[in-house]
Amino acid sequence: MTLTRRQFTTLGAASLFASPAFSQTMIGENKITSISDGNLTLPAGMIFDHVPEETLAPLREQYGLTEVLTPPCNVTLLQTGDRNVLFDVGAGSEFMSSAGFILDALDAAGLYPEDITDVIFTHAHPDHIWGLVDDFDDLLFPNATYMIGQKEWDYWTDPNTVDTIDSGRTTFAVGAARRLARIEDNITFFNDGDEVISGVAARATFGHTPGHMAFEIRNGPNALMVLGDCIGNHHMAFEHPALISGSDQDGDMGAATRVALLDQLATEQMQVLGFHLAGNGIGRVERMGDAFRFVQDS
Prior knowledge:
Layout: H1 5-13, E1 22-27, E2 30-39, E3 42-43, H2 45-48, H3 53-63, E4 68-69, E5 72-80, E6 83-87, H4 102-108, E7 118-120, H5 126-129, E8 145-149, H6 150-157, H7 161-164, H8 170-181, E9 187-190, E10 195-197, E11 200-204, E12 213-219, E13 222-228, H9 236-239, H10 251-268, E14 271-274, E15 282-288, E16 291-296
Parallel strand pairs: 6-7, 7-8, 8-9, 13-14
Antiparallel strand pairs: 1-2, 2-5, 3-4, 5-6, 10-11, 11-12, 12-13, 14-15, 15-16
């Protein structure tokens, strides 16, 4: 489904303001907080256009899905030693009116923008990276160092991307290139399996974008996976992970990534924090016959 900027703006304006919220969990001595950047407001067809109605109908009833979806935007904050690490920076003020509240959420968690020491990106879609700058195009987190997967950087900074990406995502490419240019002198690259900071390993989860990364935060036997958007909702992605999602740039690769990752997470009973998963996004993956379900932590 192709979405125009006008459609995004109109849908966003119809959404209720999302008040700042945060929830926390511990992995060893590492404090992990899910902070709310608000929510997206999207036409359901963006996710479900490829889904047969006989598959979709039971999910509509079970999960109360309508023609407009309002997934939360759960930004991960890791506090370890003297570091305050953000995984992604939210949508900023230019994407849609229902998102872009990360500063309010940080304030509720007792932090100022200057307190952020590191920003690690899962990928460069608008709701994850457009919050990099403020309304004056100044960096919102001036004291932070920035990290992103090499493949993701290469894709969004390639001048050919704007001409080769799906036409409905052209603004994504323009917006990503503009913001990444602001940090080109303060960026570190990593690849699959690299330890980006102590105790945090990058995990290639390609498909949603060409270089999408998840991150495993581990302390001894305890671990949590920061998912980004490789598992992008708590309903279709879990119950029918092999189906193509309209939100993924490479649908087949995204589905293969989802199936493999859900299997691992269910087997290992690893905690997850999903950017668009229900509630605060913190929970676990459980098997449900041949499918899976998301169980929120209480």
